[in-house]
Design a protein that fits this description.
Number of helices: 7
Catalytic activity: GMP + ATP = GDP + ADP
Order of helices and strands: EHEEEHEEHEHEHHEH
InterPro entries: GK/Ca_channel_bsu, Guanylate_kin-like_dom, Guanylate_kinase, Guanylate_kinase_CS, P-loop_NTPase
Strand order of the largest sheet: 2-7-1-8-9
Number of strands: 9
Radius of gyration: 17 Å
Structural class: alpha/beta
CATH class of the largest domain: Alpha Beta
EC number: 2.7.4.8
Function: Essential for recycling GMP and indirectly, cGMP.
Helix content: 25-40%
Protein name: Guanylate kinase
Length: 202
């Protein structure tokens, strides 16, 4: 189900529909990566932003595809230049969304998608007020708890902390323009595509 979209409106007479940036957020375990991978498969023309990070590449990661890998001085210089739509630091590493590729995609008429956490979504809304914010949510709190506990990869304290953060993130849903419930990956991706591109999946 898609909540009513509160951002923007229909183009006026003689106005062309304009490509828009869509920011997708949601709690850990809700399935963002799976849904966005399906969205990419359904509509290859959608532009997916590649973040910049100061952390070293992991095995199998490709520079320019998974991330743009830079050192901290280069990242700080990009901050000074205003090159980011949003940026943050986690666990000693910096991450940011470069502004120029997103704006170039939108100028070319390609809808663009960012997958970032809620604080970053707020920064993007401040930098680009026309951006549409979409929260991917679970069918229920019990479903999300089941997904996280079903992983069996985290200690009890870490899991409790993750659930606390998830509850805080879900409580911010009213700040978002739309919510997509991830009951099924394919259905959620199709609903997200309708928001991103303005057309239904045939």
């Amino acid at each position: 189900m898609i909540a009513a979209d509160k951002a923007g409106g229909e183009p006026g007479p003689g106005e062309a529909a304009r490509a828009r940036l869509t920011v997708v957020s949601g709690p850990s375990g809700v399935g963002k990566s799976s849904v966005l991978a399906e969205l990419r498969r359904l509509e290859p023309d959608v532009f997916f932003s590649v973040s910049v990070t100061t952390r070293p590449p992991r095995e199998g990661e490709v520079d320019g595809y998974h991330y743009h890998f830079v050192d901290r001085p280069a990242f700080e210089a990009m901050i000074e230049e205003g090159a980011f739509l949003e940026h943050a630091e986690f666990a000693g590493n910096c991450y940011g969304t470069p502004r120029q590729p997103v704006e170039e995609a939108l100028d070319a008429g390609r809808p663009a998608v960012l997958e970032i956490e809620i604080q970053g979504a707020r920064q993007v809304r401040a930098a680009m007020p026309d951006a549409r914010l979409v929260m991917l949510v679970p069918p229920s709190w019990e479903d999300l708890v089941g997904r996280l506990t079903g992983r069996g990869t985290e200690a009890t304290d870490a899991l409790r902390s993750r659930l606390t953060v998830a509850a805080e993130e879900l409580s911010a849903a009213e700040e978002f323009d739309s919510c997509v419930v991830n009951t099924d990956v394919r259905s959620a991706a199709e609903e997200l595509l309708t928001l991103v591109s303005g057309r239904a999946v045939s």
